[in-house]
Amino acid sequence: MITVVVPRMNANDESCTIQQFHCLNGQAVRSGDLLATVETSKATIDIESEADGYFLALVRESADVRIGDNIACLFETLEELHAFRETAAGAPARHDSAGYKLSHQARDFAELHRFSPEELRSLNKKLIKLDDLEELLRRKGEKQAERIALSKNQKQVSRTVTASYATIPRAFLLMKVYCDDMLRELQLLGEKLEEFVGFGEVLPVMLVPLLEEFPFMFGSFQKDESFLPAVKVNVGVTVDAGAGLYIPVLKHADLLRVERAVEAMTEYKFKALRNSFEEADLLDGVITVSLNTNPDVVGVLPIIVPGQTAMISVGAVMKELVLADGAVAERRYIHLGLAYDHRVVNGHYAVRFLTRIKEKMEQFRAAL
After folding, report:
1. How far apart are CA 361 and CA 207, in angstroms?
2. How many CA atoms lie within 13 A of 292 on its CB side?
3. Is the pLDDT at 44 greater than 90, yes or no?
4. CB 279 within 8 A of CB 16
5. How far is residue 247's CA from residue 239's CA, in Å, rounded to a whole number?
6. Cα 284 to Cα 306: distance, rounded to the nearest angstrom
7. Could you tell me which residues are beta bridge partners of residue 44?
8. Which residues on adjacent β-strands are paired with residue 176?
9. Is 200 among the domain residues?
């Protein structure tokens, strides 16, 4: 017997959902045949057979499983498969230590509505089914508002944020950056390329030359208290088109020419709208840019993605009045933030890094 396990598909997801099995129980399969499709918070992954055999699913479709769980088996013969099923069917049911057992649907329903053990025992049943709990809920006359389930994508955001706050001692720096010249150049560049060009398209390009000067901003803190620097600058950029937050990664090759970076970001925005990211789109980032440019957003304190050292945040374009040659004039600026891993980077280093970005933005034409 060969077990089929859920492989690790990225650094963040610890669980996934069985979207579909592509084989019937008892069906003969060959090495390389498609067995199942699983869905993570970010993408769908196909699992192929590693050997010839007869297929048997161990979980149902739509089930949530953890990375490393057995979801199916392959048997050399049908006789071996049937013997396995008979043995499993004859195994005695395991009752909960509380004196009852919940069906899969009932367990999910009980967790959703927070039934206490006392309430469940009050049913006086060895096996509690969904119908029993629905009746119990009706009798309780529950007045609470119905809970709203979080999307898989938002659950993954929750896990990433929790891991960041729990494991990365971060510091934060905020700078004022004047951007009139940059905004004019971005508009001209957008007209030339016939695409929208904003901070998310060009700021990653401006980071590439800084790798050699500021290596500690591009890499990750290691368990042995060393630092692993990045070889290439792959920049994650936050994208939220209303279907959830994603951080697709602009690869180093895309950042060598601003035209290619604009093209790649346009493609990522369409993928965000359609929720059609591939796993490779979201991997290998070494630093991240958080875009928060909605009107009146003064500044944002971003997290640091686990496995990275820093995240840069961009706030909304603001305006102020200044005296220019004795006359009142309007000037535009943004707040540029930097959250950095204080185990690796100290304040002086962070100030130098953010100052270099500020200089590039305020002298944008020369920087490009």
Report:
1. 11
2. 19
3. no
4. no
5. 6
6. 12
7. 39
8. 335
9. yes
Structure tokens at 83: 């013997």
pLDDT digits (tens, 9 = 90+) for 145-203: 667 888 888 888 888 899 999 999 999 999 999 999 999 999 999 999 999 999 999 99
Please name the residues in contact with 338: beta carbons below 8 A apart, sequence gap of 6 or more: 172, 173, 174, 175, 310, 311, 312, 313, 350, 353, 354
Q: Which residues contact 88 (CB under 8 A, 6 or more apart)?
A: none
With residue 188 as reference, give the H or E element that holds it: helix 180-193
Closest by CA to 237, choosing from 214, 216, 213, 206, is 206
**Are residues 82 and 117 located together in one domain of the fold?**
no
Task: Please give the helix or strand (H or E) that residue 159 lies within, else none.
Answer: helix 152-167
**Helix, strand or coil for residue 91?**
coil
Range of the domain at 50: 2-90
Where does residue 24 rank: exposed (0-12), middle (13-18), buried (19+ CB within 10 A)?
exposed
In 194-227, which residue ranges form alpha helices assigned H by DSSP? 199-207
Query: What's the pLDDT score for residue 264?
Result: 95
**What is the pTM (predicted TM-score) of this model?**
0.64
Whether 234 contacts 305, CB under 8 Å: no
The whole-angstrom separation of Cα 300 and Cα 302 is 6
Same-domain pairing of 122 and 190: no
Residue 64 sits in a domain whose CATH number is 2.40.50.100
Query: Among 285, 317, 282, which residue's Cα sits nearest to residue 299?
Result: 317
146 within domain boundaries: no
Q: Is residue 148 part of a domain?
A: no
CA 335 to chain centre: 25
> Is residue 208 a contact partner of residue 201, using CB atoms and an 8 Å limit?
no
Residues 27 and 75 in one domain: yes
The secondary structure element, H or E, covering residue 164 is helix 152-167
Going by C-alpha positions, the residue among 237, 365, 248, 356 that lies closest to residue 293 is 237
Cβ(316)–Cβ(309) under 8 Å? no
User: Total domain count for the chain?
Assistant: 3
Other C-beta atoms closer than 10 Å to the C-beta of 73 total: 18
Strand partners, 228: 220
358 neighbors 333 (Cβ within 8 angstroms): no
Q: Are the C-beta atoms of 337 and 313 separated by less than 8 Å?
A: yes
Q: What is the pLDDT at residue 156? A: 84
